Amino acid sequence: MKQSLYQRVLGEQFHQLPLAVQQMHSLIEGERLVQGVCQIEGAENRIAAIFARLAGLPRAGENLPVSVHFSVRNGVETWDRLFAGKPMTSWQWQQQTMLVERLRFVRFYFAIDADASGLQLRLLAMHVAGVPVPAWLFPRISAREYQQDGVFHFDVSAAIKGIGRLVHYRGYLQ
Name one Pfam family in it (predicted). Predict the structure, then answer.
């Protein structure tokens, strides 16, 4: 029986997730478009803004339209996000028990913690342009997905120690 990427990574834990989170991560092959609204806090200083631009992260704004076009080919999910018309694309796939996400020239290796409240990504490893990054240089990433009033919600932030917040975006998708 074919399974979605998140079903494969999470195994039986996938069924503990709230229904809205399960539905968001149930695409096995093909494409799907979801839309919603988000709030974005941008980089908190000039140096953080340089890192955020290099990573292709979205800029600040309130009540911004957001859409995500998911496509799945050969077990790899492509996430084409549009934040108020500005694109941010990443690719996700499974490597052993980890979820790998590539955003431009950076690969993040995550464990997924899942339960009835939702899921949280936990950074285990990171490569920049193919070079492993030591753990003490990892950015602080918080990525949480949950259900509120039957609707899928997300809350994602990234910061670099000694530099500050690169981005914090949160909102919902339907």
Answer: DUF4166
Provide the 8-state DSSP code for 84: T
For domain 5-173, is the CATH number 2.40.128? yes
CB 112 within 8 A of CB 119: yes
H helix runs in 40-173, sequence order: 46-55
Question: Half-sphere exposure of residue 122, counting CA atoms within 13 Å on the CB side?
Answer: 7
pTM of the full structure:
0.94
The contacts of residue 25 (CB under 8 Å, 6+ apart) are 4, 5, 6, 7, 14, 17
HSE-CB at 61 with a 13 A cutoff on CA atoms is 14
Report the alpha-carbon distance of residue 12 to residue 23 in Å, rounded.
Answer: 15
